[in-house]
Amino acid sequence: MAASMSSKSTPWTFVSAFYEPQIRRVTLHIEIEKCNYTNVIVEPHPDSSRAGSGYLEDRLVELHAEEPETESASFERDQIIEHIVDLCRMKYGRSAPPFGSVIYALTLGGIFQVRSMPDHRLVPALRKPTETFGHDLPLPPLVPRSKLRPVAGIGQFLLSQTRLVEYNGKLHIAKGPLYPHRALLDLSEVKNLIALPARHPNVMGPPTALITLGETDDRVCGFLTTYHCNGNVEFYARALREQGKLSPKLLFKWALQLVDAVAFLARHRTFHGDLKPDNIVVTDKEDIVLIDFTRLFTTFVTASPEIRKLCAGSGGTKLGIPAHWPMESVLPSEVYSIGRTLYLLCEGVEMAQVYREMGWTQDAPFPTEFAPGSPTPPELQKIISLCVSPEPCQRPSLDALSKMLRTAQKRHAVKKRFSRPTSPKSHQHSKSEGKVGPGTFYMIRSKLLY
What we know:
Blueprint: E1 13-20, E2 25-33, E3 36-42, H1 56-65, H2 71-92, E4 102-108, E5 111-117, H3 129-133, E6 142-144, E7 149-150, E8 162-167, E9 170-175, H4 183-195, E10 209-212, E11 220-226, H5 233-242, H6 248-267, E12 280-282, E13 288-290, H7 305-313, H8 327-347, H9 351-358, H10 378-387, H11 398-418, H12 424-433
Parallel strand pairs: 3-4, 6-10
Antiparallel strand pairs: 1-2, 2-3, 4-5, 7-8, 8-9, 9-11, 10-11, 12-13
């Protein structure tokens, strides 16, 4: 059975490794399938103090700790990692471990194996609901993580701390903290969503439930949110593009909805802070929904120059829009991110490739340029270029951006209408009757105002 399970049918691909010397832990970041990720943790064996124990986990930690790295050490390290990936591939197939668990590679009973369990360093950092969120907000119901059934699914960009799960016969996205030092910060997204005084169709709603460690342990390890079957806007757009169905009309609709969602947040004196294709999903009606409201981190490929400069100059202590910034400074930065998001989406840039080549916080050159024959509609190219102006004062306001998009949308619709080929018969009929064909100048305005 295991032998027939090839890497092609159930791909698990090693992406990167992170070594924490203070605690002697190696974390392997692994792609399961179609941008679904999980982590594998490798730590020294409890009996590793014995000389000549020969535990593979010990050796992998040693290889990451050694400096400088030799060619033979690099080869040995890669072999151990590939062995771990093979073990994961055979044991889990296309599925990630249950929500709230990571994979450990360790020796048990003399056998090197992989096993899913909660991160023993994360669990002590978790707190009960009122300790995590306070007493002032109405909290959603509690659900133990054992009640969530993991589901293998593609079309979503699911990081290591997120899972597609089934609960009470319905599909949900389960999300939780990944690192012990960020546990309460990551869960602050729940508070941010509940605290919004109103709802918006293009902004994710409050969590369906809080996820606890167990039926008798109500420490919060995550939350449930709405699952959208069309998944991530990048993957959905790519699928439409491959079918020749990604229309400018739909791109304009998404652009307007994105601006409207950011304007809604601004009216309530808040912001998103990490606008990018990964943080947008598509509903069954092809509307977009903005997700991920932690508001603590940012991705450099879509972040404004002023935010990148601030983060890069902080030595890694700042990774997002500062909470003390006035909205007058925040909104131009959000407009820049809207422009970059639309650029990546319209141009069909694969975010997974961007992360592999540049990472999340590497300020590498990535210009917003449109080559001849660009798939981005010309009307959108001009607007995107304005949004990504280097100076904040040169970027349009959200109101101006919305008006420009609507004007460009109408202009494109009119141009498309007049560019339609006319059959000889219909042309002759119009000329003889001296009338314009019905509907030639009649446009139905999309319902984009909420």
